[in-house]
Hints:
By secondary structure, the protein is mainly α. The protein has helices at residues 16-22, 27-35, 53-63, 79-101, 108-115, 119-128, 142-149; strands at residues 13-14, 43-45, 48-52, 105-106, 140-141.
Amino acid sequence: MRLISENPGAALLVTAEKAAEMLAMGKSTFWREVGNSNLPPPVKIGSLTRWRVADLQRWVERLTPDSNGGAPQDTQIDDSTRNLLRRLDTIAWALQIMAARTPSKLTRAQMCHRLGVTSNTITNRLRRGQMPKPGPDGRWLLEEVIEWESGGSFKRP
């Protein structure tokens, strides 16, 4: 699946198979790392599960030490990337506003589907404090889920 980008030949989202290939790891290793929350979370588009290429690249950059063996150096972001990130922030903000106006709640099954993980993975992430906890009714507020997915903070009860 290719989306519109500054470079018409570049995909912005990739499948699990392509993401594993980009990271030079096997599919089972890739899925294990996803399940352990060691890789960026996927994006759900209907029934499709995809990864943002930019998220995978940032993940690799954080792991890669500079030539002196120290921490990675900050990389320059070109104007087109900066504009794209601004647009994505605007879209995420609009989704949060929409979710706040119509407080929808997600069940555990819907969260599993949205994140592309099993119920056990959600249980493990909740125990480790790696995701927002559901409300007293066992459901997650969509607004909080979107905030968490966009890399923002979440409130722990």
